[in-house]
Design brief:
Layout lengths: L2 H22 L1 H18 L7 E4 L6 H8 L1 H6 L4 E4 L4 H9 L7 E4 L6 H5 L1 E17 L9 H4 L4 E3 L5 H11 L11 E3 L2 H9 L5 E5 L5 H7 L4 E3 L5 H7 L4 E5 L15 E13 L4 H17 L23 H9 L10 H27 L3 H24 L6 H20 L7 H20 L2
Parallel strand pairs: 1-2, 1-3, 5-6, 5-7
Antiparallel strand pairs: 3-10, 4-7, 4-8, 4-10, 9-10
Length: 447
């Protein structure tokens, strides 16, 4: 017999042995399969929903970020819906509402209540968002401090936006309550912008990234001045969710020397928040996509290329998935395997490892399953002929008893022939036949 023919026969007999074992132990197999199925359902290795991300007004920086994330997430076969909102507070309410489809959203974490903060997970910050305070050029000599702003009509973003809450906190730190001051008017994003540009407001305060279309529009206007915040570093020291940032002279337009001097601002960071029950695979996909969107961006101003995402604002608890991402990075297998398989391995590897730890030692004991099953069958036959041997030893048999025992041996022989003899066990089979013949001879000579 050729080598490959022999190996093929060995494999065939092993598969037959496996099939027979599964049939005999079918209840055990069913229980094991049910156990594995239960573990899979418990670990939820595959996400069954897409991502619906709440942003801000259409065209805003958060909305742009959400749209930029669609293509990378589609590559992972994850559906994404970008929802326009009024901002932070509305986003947090959507995330809290069990009937809402929103499961991720951008927020200014420090503007949320403690209850809202505790109900969410943070995936980290994705950008610096300064507090922008613009006013008309004719007021340049009259506005030097935060307190000076209260003398004029101030346009504010919607009350359910982080911009409004941060403006409120900024003025509260200076002993000013904007809700009781009639000079401060909150309205929709469109109305607040229109009121300022049309002259119905003297000052406009909002929070956004440097890339926001509204910031670009106002900062290039020759009729407007950007407020230079005195003691910006003091706010950073006082509030853990604020950072002092600087727009260097000429950094916006070198030729036009815009701005003409350094301007100090305070900035918070945009937090990417998610529901606590958002599938770990979707959280990981959001983190990886956020990093990719930021790295691929051609316009970074206050941050460095690899600075975000990062856990900067501790107001919202960090997701365990995000903590693992920041400590160890994304799974290395994402470079070589489809995302669904990476997710399965990442969620299921401990179970697989535990199963291997049990199965491998057992497989070493019963590696040749065909031989093991053959030995069990032959042991049954040997036990039968051993009983007959013990029965006739020292006993004189009658003709009827001899015939009965010989028929019993013939039956044992037929039972042995019903089972195939696996390759490599032929010598043992013929040893059994030899033992059978010896006992037959002994019976025939008895008497």
């Amino acid at each position: 017999m050729k080598t490959f023919d022999y190996l093929g026969l060995v494999l065939k007999h092993e598969l037959i042995a496996i099939k027979e074992s599964l049939i005999e132990l079918r209840m055990v197999v069913i229980m094991i399969l049910l156990l594995i199925g239960g573990v899979i359902v418990y670990l939820k290795p595959f996400p069954f929903t897409g991502i619906t991300i709440a942003t801000s007004y259409k065209g805003g920086d958060w909305y742009q970020f959400g749209e930029a994330a669609i293509a990378p997430l589609k590559e992972h076969e994850i559906d994404v819906v970008v929802v326009a909102t009024n901002g932070t507070i509305e986003n947090a309410e959507e995330l809290k509402d069990p009937k809402s489809k929103v499961n991720a959203g951008f927020v200014y974490a420090a503007t949320l209540s403690e209850e809202q903060q505790k109900e969410l997970y943070s995936l980290g910050s994705v950008s610096y968002d300064p507090v922008w305070i613009f006013y008309r050029n004719e007021l340049a000599d009259k506005i030097k401090t935060i307190q000076d702003l209260t003398k004029y009509k101030v346009a504010l973003a919607p009350k359910k936006s982080g911009s409004y809450i941060l403006a409120k906190k900024l003025f509260e730190a200076n002993g000013i309550n904007i809700e009781s001051n009639s000079h401060f008017v909150s309205s929709s994003w469109e109305d607040s912008r229109e009121n300022f540009l049309s002259g119905n407001a003297d000052v406009y305060i909002f929070v956004a990234t440097m890339l926001d279309p509204l910031v670009k529009e106002l900062i290039h206007s020759p009729d407007l001045t950007l407020f230079n915040l005195p003691n910006a570093i003091a706010y950073q020291k006082q509030f853990n969710y604020l950072d002092a940032v600087v727009i260097p002279a000429g950094s916006i337009d070198i030729e036009k020397k815009l701005p003409v001097r350094d301007i100090s601002l305070v900035a918070t960071t945009t937090t990417l928040a998610v529901r606590k029950d958002l599938h770990p695979a979707l959280q990981l996909a959001l983190l990886m996509t956020s990093k990719q969107v930021i790295q691929d961006s051609s316009k970074l101003f206050f941050s460095k290329r690899d600075e975000f995402p990062a856990y900067v604002d501790p107001s919202i608890p960090l997701s365990p998935i995000a903590r693992n991402f920041y400590n160890y990075g994304p799974p290395k297998t994402t470079e070589y395997l489809p995302y669904w398989l990476v997710v399965f391995i990442d969620r299921f590897w401990l179970v697989v490892l535990a199963a291997f730890a049990v199965i491998y030692p057992l497989s070493k004991l019963n590696f040749h399953l065909r031989r093991f099953r053959f030995i069990i069958r032959e042991r049954t036959h040997y036990a039968l002929i051993l009983n007959i041997e013990q029965e006739i030893t020292g006993k004189k048999l009658s003709i009827e008893e001899k015939e009965k025992l010989l028929k019993k041996l013939e039956m044992i022989n037929k039972q042995a022939l019903q089972h195939f003899v696996p390759v490599g066990e032929e010598p043992n089979y013929f040893l059994f036949l030899n033992a059978l013949q010896l006992l037959r001879n002994k019976i025939e000579r008895n008497g």
